[in-house]
Structures are given as C-alpha cells and as structure tokens.
Amino acid sequence: MTLTEARPAERTRPVYAPARSRPMWCAASLTVAGAAGAALLVAANRAAEWDRGTQFGLFWLGMLVFTLPAAGWAVRRSTSTRLRVAVLAGYAGFTFLPKLLRNPFGPLYHDEFAHWRQSKEILLDGRLFEQNPIVKVVGDFPGLHSTVASVSALTGISIWHAALLVLAAAHVLVVLGVTVLAEEIWQDGRIAAVSAIIYSLNSSFLFFDTQFGYESLAIALLVWTLVALHRAMRGPARRSRAGWAAVTVMLSGATIATHHLTAIALIAVMIIICLVVTVRAVRRGTPVAVPLTAWGLTLAAAALVVAWLVLVAPRTTGYLDPYLARALDQIAGMAGDGGGGGRTLFRASVAPWWEQAAAFGAQGLAAVAMAAAALRLRRGHGTEPVARSGALAMLVLGAFYFPAALLILTPSGAEGARRSWAFSYLGIALVVAPLVVALLDRPVSRLGKTTAAALLLAVGAIAMIGNTAAGMNPSYRFPGPPVFGSDTRSSIPEVRAASAWLRATQGRELRIVADRYSGLIFGSYGGQNPVTGSVTFPTYDLYLTQPGQPAPRQLIQQLSAWRFGYLIVDKRMAREVPEIQIYFETNEPVPHDGRPAFTLGQLTKFDRTPWTIKIYDSGNIAIYRFDFARAGR
C-alpha cells in the first residue's frame, strides 16, 4: 500500500515534515477522544434501556467526539503517510463500536440469526451449501460462514466471537480499501483519506455493514477488487498487468462466493468503468491496452458470477424477483390515481426531530456536493488515462445514489434502496473528496481555514447523522424494553426457553410452523427448520382460520406430505401489533389496520382441534404436535 502525500503538481512543496507530524500527540489525543466517545456510546445504550430519551444525543456526541479529531488528523497536510494510515485504521475500529456494543454476546438482527446458524452448522457438521431455514439462499454463498467457522476451529473461540473478529477486520479493510482506491485515482494521500471518511458517512456503514451478514465481508472484497482492476489497467509491464489481473479475478470469485447482491453490484461498477475507458479510448486516444484489460477482466468476473448463480445458486433469482416486482408495483400504485403503495418516512418513529431533519438535509447536501464535484471534474484531472477514467466512472456510479430515493418510498423497495447506497455512495465519496480538500486549501488566512474546516465538519456531521437515521430504525441502533414484532427486541426469555425445551425433548432439525419472530429463535438457538409462510405455502392460513371452521384441506395435505411435525403459537399476536407491520412475511394476506390481526380464539382453537396436541404452554408461547392421521379421519 502506498499513500502519496500530495498531487503531482505539489511535489515542489515539502510534503513530509517529521517535526510537524506529531505522532505522539496524535496518539494521545485520539486515545483520550476514543475513550470518551466509547463511554458516551455505553451511556447512550444504558439510557435507551431505561427509555430516558437522551440516547440519541449521547450517541452522536460520542461519535463526534472521536470522528472530528480523527478527520482533522487525517486531513492535515503535515500528517505523515504512516500516521495517516494509523489514524484511518483507528477510525475504522472506533466506528465498529456502535454495532459491537449493541449486541456483543450473540445475534440480534434478523439475518444474523441465519448466518450464525449457518456458520455453526459448518463447524459442527463440516458441510457447505446446506439450505438455511431462515434465509433460503444463505447456504449457497458460504464465503463468510466458512471463514468464521475456520477461525472458530483454529482458535477455539465461539462462532459469535470468531464472527466479530472477521467483521472487525473486514470493516478496517473497507476503510483502507477506499483509501487506496481513491489514491489510485487522485494520487493524493489527503484526498484518499477524505474519501474514506466521506464513505463512512453512508447509511449502512455503522450498523448494517457491520452486522453478522455476508454483505459485511463482501463489501471489502468489492472495494479491493476495484483496486486490483485499476492497477491491472495501469500496469506498466505485461507481468505487472497479468499479476493484478489474476488478483482481480480471484477477488471477484471470492465476492460471488460470499454475497449475490455485492457480486452483481461489482459487475455493474466494472461495466461502468469499461464503458468510460472505452469512450475515452475512442475520443481521447487512451492506450488500447486499458479498455482491453478492463473488458477482459469484467467479462471474466461476469462469467464467474453467472456460472455461480446458474450452477451453484439457481434459487437466487426466485429469491430476489418478488422484492423487485412488488417494489415496481408499489411505485406504479404511487403514480396512479389512488396514490397507494407508498410508505411514510419516519412514521411513528421515536427519532428526534433533528435526526429526521438531518435525514432529509443529508440528501440535499449530497446532491449539491455531487453537482459541484461534477463541475470541478469538467475542468480536467491530469492526463493519466486510468485516473481520469476512474474519476468519471465514480461520478456515474455516484449519480445512481439518487434514483434509489424512489425505491425508499415503497415498503418492498426500501430494503433494496438502503443496500444499494452502500455501493453508490462509494462514487460520491471518491468524486467529492477532491472538492473538500480544495475548499480546505483555498483560504489564505488562518481564520479562513478554521472557518472552512468547521463548516465542512458540520456538513459531515449532518451527513453522518442523517444518513444513519434514514438507513436504520432506532430499535436496531439502541437496546430497550421488549417490543413485539421487532426484529431486534421481540426475542424474550420465554421464547428462548420454549425453543430450548423443544430441542431438548424432541430433537433438532424438526420441521415446524411459526410466525416470523418465533421462527428466528426456534430456527437459530433451537436448531429447528421453521417455515413462516409464502404464497405457494400459506401456512399462515392455519392461524387465520376462524374457530369452528376447518383449516384448508390442501394446506393440511401439504404439511402432512412434507412431514411437518410442530406448530408454534405466540399469543401476543392477539394483543399487540408488530412494530414492523409483519406477522409472517412481507406479502402476507393479513390485515394491517393498527389493530391486532388475530383474536385470542383464533390462536387458542388448536386446543380443541383434533389433529393438534398441545405439548407445551408457557403463557405466551404454546407448542402443538401435529397428528395428521386424526385429521384424515
């Protein structure tokens, strides 16, 4: 890794001044700031547990206490290369703290239960590509799970702690990877550092891309694949180009073995780069080796992705299609006369007004920054063809950030929009960073420089707060009292005890029918194979059937044929409304009108149904064993 200190035009200036670098003062100040920031983050979590309402202010104060001085040290002209890398690595480590402190002892987010179970099954049974009952396609992409299981086997630590090590390393690699990629384009260490800091402001950085999920590792692979691609295109000799080309193909293969969406996004970014270098080769006389190398590596990576999706993971298309189709239908509904299909941002959110305002303000700031960066880029960026092409490609990539705002307004498209921002924000970071450095260098007086730095830091703070608020609900960011229908707070000891009882008395890998939230616990800690319903397998019709009415005969036959043995009933469904407005799955035919969708009679009718036998009841959770032979009689 080589981080230059200044642009080529500034080589006449002294760029490395050991006397002014002050590494000891930097280490001391950031250590104090890091300790203070971590203490404030812990205080924010404690305030959230007691529902005091001060957690938002404490959290962002803790983040800014470390982020602002770290950004200052990284951008200083006198900061040496090694010190800048150390500051960025420390910054990456600190930004891993919010998610680490949120759940340091086990899975919490919805997908974490699936990945935790998959990694544990690999460690116990040594088999890859086993189907996961929580997220169906997880088993087809074993990159993260096999890595975590390997670390756990080699070190003897638990699966969860092995995952934390892998995720922390990946988080650091993302920050350093963005830094190196920016330097490949701009040849300036300060711009590279600013690019990494701007990228860390995206909505997924603090919580989503630090969770135990395959995208958390795949993002790092994507960034370093782009680094290798740029170096392959710039290779001064055939041997150098061949070496980086091999690294590019290897990393792209690792990406598709880890996560489907990240691999697809990688191919999309590589195609953008290919198109830009091809146009410039035609119009500007870029050496023909550059577009040939770019297209060759892109086609090789695309072939790997297509082969994996067709031969190894053919279920992926069916898994992704419904989300996109429903999002398009909802967009059409919003555009129609009725205006239906949309969602209200921050509906019933407990986030303070200033977080919500920052969420809208961050999008406006991003648009203004991108427009200014585009105007500045028109004036040219050196003569090096790969660097110029890379900058223009990142501008195109960053422009895709804004159309995703249309998807964020739909219930089905919101998740995809948030995931896309982790990729498109990379383009924003790399083209806006030179503008930031230019604004810092423009004022002549010390007062002017201080004012410019303060304004830029304020803009960065608004972007960090607003993007995070727009991308992650408070219940994901903070602990608190149990909330039914929350992916993070619905796991109460009663549910875990029931799952432990079923596993201890009946065994593991049983086929069970459950709701979304019970299914998470029974499918992970309980080691069972839950189904929560779908259009082709509507198990939720068991719960919807009115007392005294027969259950759908075809569904009973389907359950019997597929050897489902147990039914889980959470009676809270008759008393409370799910926080995320989902009982079973996103396309469920269940009324959502602000009232519980079930009556207690619907949920207790199984006590009198001849083909269900109650074997467990803890008050809220009841477990029934199916006896389909009696249903036939």
From TrEMBL:
Keywords: Membrane, Transmembrane, Transmembrane helix
Segments traversing the membrane: 23-44, 56-75, 159-182, 189-208, 214-230, 264-282, 294-313, 357-377, 389-409, 421-440, 452-472
Name of this chain's protein: Dolichyl-phosphate-mannose-protein mannosyltransferase
Originating species: Paractinoplanes atraurantiacus
Lineage: Bacteria, Bacillati, Actinomycetota, Actinomycetes, Micromonosporales
